[in-house]
Amino acid sequence: MAHRQDWNHFPENSLEALEGSIAQGVDIVEIDIRKTKDGQLIVMHDHTVDRTTNGQGAIAELDWLEIEKLQLRDKEGNLTSYKVPTFKEYMQAANGKIMVNLDIKIDPLENFSAMYQVLEATETLDQTFWVFDASYQAVKDTLQKYPGAIMCPKIGSHQQDPVGEYYAYVDNMELQTLFFRFKTEQDTLWTVVEDALNRGIKTYCHTLWEGSSAAGHSDYKSKDDPDFSWGWLIDQGMEIIMTDETEALIRYLEIRNQ
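Above: the chain sequence. Below: its structure as tokens.
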């Protein structure tokens, strides 16, 4: 999974970065959803346009007509000719080509209906999954209301009882994927990974930085020793890895013949 798509070659969250990831052979892209003052859903990470465009201001305080005139910046801050895409434009471009992971930067419950309608209109419900950092009951209620949605709850050390949360999810609803956050290699949450795999659930973590998501097995450490990071996580049962180093991970998987 490509974090913010092919941002090494194109501005993050752009249609061009999406096409770059598709060309690389990436299986999934992660995108960020925001909403403008006049209710337009757009694809952008930050709550302001300052870092990624030649504009200024909070997205929630700008109309779409103002944002669509802006130009995106690349990772070095250089101005490009690329534009901010709407969520609908992005999903139209992704249709039939790649899975999409929604990282929702606005209230997911309040805005679920609007996002769901976009996926219905673009016929991309079956290739999109929603990373949901909410209570078990909230996820269950949402799934009952929107049965076509592929929900991906977060399970990890940010919860008081992650193992208990895991069984609350899997014993009471059908899930296709789960986002795991492991604090250490001794984290008790590792004990449920095999159970998830046996249930046919896709196991997912990210290796973006040092910290509590992948027990310290990060992209940074993979540059010198991919067996330590990506290889170790794969051996522990992780089937989806979100990374900033997609090209390097693809090469590593080819070496492993996976």
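The chain is about 35% helix and 15% strand.
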